Amino acid sequence: MPRSKLNLSKVLIDSGKITAEQLEKALFIQRKAGRELKEILINEGILSEDELLSVISYHLNIPFVDPSRYEIDPKIIATIPEDLARKHVFFPLYKIGKTLLIAVAEPLDILTIDNLRLSLGCEVKQVLAKEQIISDCINTFYSDTGTQSLPGILKYEGDQEEALEIIRVKKTEDEESADLIQESQKEPIIEAVNRIVGEAIAKRASDIHLEPGDEDLTIRYRIDGILHKIYSLPKKTQRGIAARIKILSNLDITRFYIPQDGRFSLNTKGKQLDFRVSSLPTIYGEKFVLRILDKSSITVKLQDLGFSEHSFNLLKEGISKDHGMILVTGPTGSGKSTTLYAVLNELNKIHRHIVTVEDPVEYQLDGIGQTQIRSDIDFTFATALRGILRQSPDIIMVGEIRDAETADIAIKASLIGQLILSTLHTNDSVSAFARLIDMGVERYLVASSLILICAQRLCRKICSNCKEPVETPPANILKELGIAQSQEMKFYAGRGCSVCYNTGYKGRIALLEAFLVDDIIRSMVIQEKPLEEIREMAIKEGRLITLRSDGIIKAAAGITTIEEIYRVTAND
Q: Considering only Cβ atoms within 10 Å of each terminal Cβ, which end of the chain, N or C, has fewer?
């Protein structure tokens, strides 16, 4: 295809980015190999791709951008044929009025730009981007697992890669709900729900959010802890999709104005997934959140959770005790339950009697008695604990300590021979002392019972497919993180690719603040020493590894990024 000419050799020499000798070497290789000059400069290490594109960007006065950082509108994608985007290596970013902005790898392909103007009937502006990132964006947003427009979903007629076998209990069809049931059974609605669920599984989402608005229904997936907008469906689909999900989850489809909780299961790729469904009435209709629970993930071993060595050793020392209380603290979605289940798997031996009380029971564990509370009949954590203690357990896992009564019973049980595992909502480990005391538990009981407190967060891991070294972060950020700057320090980040959906991250790993309580710490708690003083003493003794310190260890090992550690621990 005809292109305007760019005298790249002259541009590079004038910019001072390369010497005449380096240019001569590259031109010599070009004459022998017949490859493009840009490719030779990059492969020979004379210039990085970023440096080369920055020079071209400056010379042509065209911005150099990363398309993966843009929020892509699926309606714009739908207007550009995939084969055209692939053939000419460009990607549509957004459209304002009559102007379409596209990212291109070749900014002087004038004929393609002119053809686009004629075929789309709008002005076309271009920005410069890496060819590989453009290709990755095309693969992601035009593929079956990428963002699609509404017609792509509701007219989807192809088979899924593997059929989803829904396991549910059928509800009685009465006259009042007959029309809703009929609408939920329409083929486009069934296919849309299957597609939404199937793609969430393929993208490793932990949650599916269906959020009604004034004019549309937004579908978002939480992937590696971050929400991503996937679909924007028209308002008319909302009623049928809501009814379909409620029928699958065994919810009352005629009750729109109260929150409801349900669940369903499906079999896919040889494993069973549980979906915990929550509905909430809003001014625009019912909002749904579907939490995806993979039963196979709960068989994970403690040593496979990715804890740093020192934190792991403190955790192992704590769970080796015969009695006392072990707490895992952190916000919702920080992996507390997974850690506790891994601890239970570690402690689950034939000579031990282990019982749990949970709300709800998320995973079923062989060899362990599991009880689910029922608030509607006043079967609470406290009530269940009293019953469990009469059954001579060795280890009790309490899903969450929510109130003073549960805290008091659990702590007293830990002092008379049981090992108690539970969770608590605090920002860090040391604050657990204050939280329990604020609940009304006697200070000396709190100090005597706690043997290990773990604060936990989940941070995203760098995508191994596009991982690359990056420049050392600015000194002020390193200083704020408490990192002494060093010439030998190396950090990494993900460039963004189709494997990680251009985020640079794939998967998550736990940051663990392990705090092993000893007699010195107990004495300080009883003496009402400030929490900060207790924390400093624990760090000094090597009995506490902070969340940020654990994160820095993982960033230095190339597992995650400094930016991610800063984001996750900013409030700690």
A: N
Enter the tokens of residue 248: 């699958």
Contacts 24+ apart (CB under 8 A), 173-176: 176/254
| Phi-psi sector, 497: left (phi>0), alpha (psi -120 to 50), beta | beta
Task: Give the number of other Cβ atoms within 10 Å of residue 373's Cβ.
Answer: 22
Question: If you search the block for the tokens 């539970």, which residue do you land on?
Answer: 422
Cβ count near 426 (within 10 Å): 19
The answer to whether 481 and 509 are in contact (CB under 8 A) is no
Q: Which residues contact 266 (CB under 8 A, 6 or more apart)?
A: 164, 165, 166, 167, 197, 272, 273, 275
Left, alpha or beta for 482 (phi > 0: left; psi -120 to 50: alpha)?
left
Instruction: Identify the H or E element spanning 83.
Output: helix 82-88
- DSSP category for residue 544: B
- Rounded-to-integer distance, Cα 161 and Cα 154, Å: 17
Q: Are 227 and 462 in contact (CB under 8 A)?
A: no
Residue 87 to residue 404: CA distance in whole angstroms = 66
Q: Determine the 3-state secondary structure of 201 from DSSP.
A: helix
Q: What is the pLDDT of residue 164?
A: 56
pTM beyond 0.70: the answer is no
Distance in Å from the first CA to the final CA of the chain: 56
Average pLDDT over residues 250-261: 89
3-class secondary-structure state, position 111: helix
d(CA 382, CA 445): 18
Query: Tokens 């050392």 label which residue?
Result: 472
The confidence band for 229, taking pLDDT boundaries of 50, 70 and 90, is confident
CA distance linking residue 147 with residue 323, whole number of Å:
51
Amino acid at 15: S
- Contacts by residues 110-114 (CB-CB < 8 Å, ≥ 24 positions apart): 110/2, 110/3, 110/4, 111/1, 111/2, 111/3, 112/1, 112/88
Question: In 3-state terms, what secondary structure has residue 177?
Answer: coil
pLDDT (0 to 100) of residue 462:
93
**How confident is the model over 356-368, as pLDDT tens digits?**
998 878 777 888 8
CA nearest to 275, candidates 262, 286, 287, 288: 262
User: What is the CB-side half-sphere exposure of residue 427 using CA atoms within 13 A?
Assistant: 7
Residue 204 exposure: Cα atoms within 13 Å on the Cβ side: 13
Q: What is the DSSP string of 447-499?
A: HHHEEEEEEEEEEEEEPTTSEEEEPPPPHHHHHHHT----TT--EEEE---TT
List b or e across 299-308, with b for residues whose CB sees 16 or more CB atoms inside 10 angstroms: eeebeebebb
Of residues 427, 376, 420, 429, the one with CA closest to residue 399: 420
